[in-house]
């Protein structure tokens, strides 16, 4: 007979809708900052070199690569991509919890 595990502390936290929403927002910020740092690294650029290409400061690039930063604009992300020799691609995926019915015309 198999024993089932009880809920973990994280499971209990994620059951709270308010906590889950904040967690998902923070996680998304982390993913964006991580992608910026990875893109810069793959382009062989330091934060200072990327800053020069974008005509900004190293501290600004550092801020973009911080998980705490959340004021990205599409224009800024596009500049980062161009400076690193990449293209910006934005992908929307359906939220299984809030699935919207398709309408036919």
Structural write-up:
With 105 residues, the chain is mainly α. It has one domain (10-98): Orthogonal Bundle (434 Repressor (Amino-terminal Domain)). The protein is 54% helix and 0% strand. The model has no long low-confidence stretch (mean pLDDT 89).
Write a brief caption for the model.
With 105 residues, the chain is mostly helical. The protein contains five helices and no strands.
* Known CATH architecture: Orthogonal Bundle
Radius of gyration: 19 Å
Largest sheet: none
- Text of the CATH class: Mainly Alpha
- Low-pLDDT runs: none
Helix content: 40-55%
Q: The CATH topology is what? A: 434 Repressor (Amino-terminal Domain)
Shape: elongated
CA(first)-CA(last) distance: 53 Å
Q: How many H/I helical runs?
A: 5
Question: What features would you highlight for this structure?
Answer:
single chain; 105 residues; mainly alpha; 434 Repressor (Amino-terminal Domain)
